[in-house]
User: Fold this.
Amino acid sequence: MKRCRLHRLRMPLRQPTRTSYGVHTGRDLIIVELETVAGARGVAECVAMREPTYTEETVETAWHVLRDFLVGRLRGQVFHSVDHLDRFADSLLAIRGNAMARAGLEMAVWDAFAAETETPLYQLLGGQERDVPVGISLGMEDAVDTLVERAQAANRAGYQRIKLKVAPGEDVLPLRVLRDALPDLPLMADANSAYQDAPESTFAELDELSLMMIEQPLSPDDLVDHARLQHRIQTPICLDESIRSAADVRRAAEIGACGVINLKPGRVGGFTQSRRAHDQACAHGLGLWCGGMYETGIGRLHNIALCSLPGFQLPTDVGPSDQYFVEDIVEPPVRFCRPGFLRVEAMCGVAERVDWRSLQRYTVHSEQIDF
Ligand code: MG
Assistant:
């Protein structure tokens, strides 16, 4: 590898989004850019957020770990095969935790390898060209009418399911209203771990709504309580924050902690772990879909490439660019190929799609490391 550039970006969100973690008005993120000795370019997005509320990582900690501990591991590296990429990803495990920082670098390496070998990224990952069904994730709203309007607009745009962020006391009523407004559209709830102390009756009520799944009701580090809950309710539990590696997928499956996995490459450390997590989910018969982290087009296109793997059958949270951003940093932006579907594209890495001028416009700080 010849050089690495780290870019810190601040992207304004189209509208503030509220979850059980708080209100988000903008998205701070890191773009990792690599250049190989042969001149190929690779990019990837580090999805750590400004605050350590989703996981312990932040943009600041990811920047520190990338610059001071991870990027240097590329010195002298020339990649020859997917096995080599996997070995490189495993070598990054010497750095404990910090999966989003690791993923930022690891996925840029995959991206550069796709460009250098002129191979479609989805092919390197072992997937197939296909159209991926897309669902929408709606934040909590103070007014139920606003929520229904948003859901109806999503339905008209073709979204294949609605996911509602919920918290104790803001769950059964809005879900029932959505179910009544759009009886044929699959509906699910995302609790972002807010139900740790919820009474038993709450889950009984949620269980009567015939939801596709309830995402991450309990604490991220508590597979055992998730397993106990899953045995009590019919609605499949989907694990998000709890899954930080392929081994976590196996553990969750073995104790019956869930029926579905929401896989985010940033949360498990990149493409190598994502492929293994996919294989574990398939081997144990778990449903699988790819979640979103308010990514720019760079992260979105990577997620869609991952969705080319056969196990990703449930609708993804990864939508078109204009879902969250006024302007994207890829050109053309990510758009539906038909209402409610994104096409896995045959691009040889995402770097070829980056609009560098637009990327620069949102960049607040960059640093270059030459090898
Ligand atoms: Mg979630």
In short: The first strand starts at residue 3 and ends at 19. The mean pLDDT is 95.
